[in-house]
Design a protein that fits this description.
The chain is built from two helices and no strands. It is mainly α. The radius of gyration is 18 Å and the shape is elongated.
Length: 68
């Protein structure tokens, strides 16, 4: 399962160098870290509560690749 967030302010001009600014790299790292943490928490929750889900939900999770 993959969650994505869009932050248009990180797609700015990086200046004359043509590379990404330190600020943009910092924001990207922060966003990526939070994304990983959220995905880990969801996976942990699904793993611990797998049998509490109705069969239809379990089937959908299996189809999305989150089976336990």
């Amino acid at each position: 399962m993959s969650m994505t967030a869009y932050f248009p302010f990180t797609e700015g001009h990086a200046g004359a160098r043509g590379g990404r600014s330190k600020w943009t790299r910092f924001l990207d790292a922060m966003i990526e870290a939070r994304k990983r943490k959220a995905e880990e928490e969801v996976a942990r929750y699904v793993q611990h509560h797998w049998y509490e889900f109705p069969p239809q939900i379990r089937d959908e999770l299996v189809n999305r690749g989150m089976d336990s």
